[in-house]
Write a structure and sequence with these properties.
It holds the Pfam family Tim17. The chain is about 70% helix and about 0% strand. The N and C termini lie far apart (about 65 Å).
Length: about 210
C-alpha cells in the first residue's frame, strides 16, 4: 500500500466521522499533557511533599490521568454523537451534544479524584460565566472554517455583570475557606492556606521574608 492510497483512505468522506474519533482521542491526550504537566510540576515544587522521586510519581500520575481521561471523553463524546446521528437517520439534533456530554461526563469524570474535580470545577466555572452578558459576539456570522472562527478575538463579558460575578465568587470562596474549608478542592485549599494562613505565622526575619515556618 503506497502513500497515495493511504491518503485517499484518510480523505475519504465515508470514513471521516470514524477517523475524527481517533483524532479526537489523540488531541485530548496531547492537550491533557500540555495542561496538566506544567500545573502538576509547579504545584509539586510549591506544595509537594517527599523526595524528588515521590514528587515525580505524583506529577506522572496526575498528568497520565488528565491526558487519558480527556482522550477517553473526546472519543466517547464523538462516538455517542455519531451513534445518535445514525439512529436519527443521519440527522443531528440540538439535544445530541447535551446527551453525549452527559453520558461522557458521568462515565469518564464521574469518579471524584483530585484531577477530575479540578476539571469539573473548571467546566462549572465556564458554564456559570457563559450566563454573563457580553458586549457583543466574538464569532463571525460569515461561513468559515472552525479554526478560523476560533481565532476571532473574543469579546470580554459586560464589565458590570462580570464585576458582580467576581465579587460573589470571591466572597463565597473566602467564606467557604474560613467556615467550611473541607468542602474546597484540596489543591485550591492548599494554595489558599499558603496565601492566607501561612502568612499569619513567623518566628523571625528569616521566616517572615524568606520561607514559612
Amino acid at each position: 500500500m503506497d502513500l497515495s492510497t493511504i491518503n485517499d483512505f484518510l480523505l475519504n468522506p465515508v470514513f471521516h466521522d470514524y477517523l475524527a474519533i481517533l483524532k479526537g482521542a489523540r488531541n485530548g491526550f496531547v492537550y491533557g499533557v500540555k495542561v496538566r504537566f506544567p500545573h502538576a510540576l509547579v504545584m509539586s515544587i510549591l506544595f509537594g511533599r517527599g523526595d524528588v522521586k515521590t514528587r515525580l510519581k505524583v506529577i506522572y500520575r496526575a498528568t497520565k490521568q488528565h491526558a487519558f481521561n480527556l482522550a477517553k471523553f473526546v472519543s466517547l463524546y464523538k462516538t455517542l454523537l455519531l451513534l445518535q446521528k445514525k439512529v436519527n437517520g443521519g440527522k443531528e439534533r440540538s439535544a445530541d451534544t447535551f446527551i453525549a456530554g452527559l453520558i461522557g461526563g458521568f462515565l469518564v469524570f464521574g469518579e471524584r479524584t483530585a484531577v477530575n474535580e479540578q476539571i469539573v470545577l473548571y467546566v462549572i466555572a465556564r458554564v456559570v460565566a457563559s450566563f454573563i452578558p457580553r458586549a457583543g459576539s466574538p464569532y463571525s456570522s460569515s461561513p468559515q472554517s472552525p479554526r478560523a472562527t476560533a481565532l476571532v478575538k473574543p469579546v470580554p463579558p459586560n464589565p458590570q455583570y462580570f464585576a458582580v460575578l467576581a465579587a460573589v465568587s470571591w466572597g463565597a470562596v473566602m467564606w467557604l475557606f474560613k467556615e467550611r474549608g473541607e468542602t474546597i478542592q484540596p489543591g485550591m485549599f492548599n494554595s489558599m492556606t499558603y496565601l492566607y494562613r501561612d502568612s499569619e505565622v513567623w518566628k523571625n526575619l528569616k521566616t517572615l521574608l524568606w520561607h514559612n515556618t
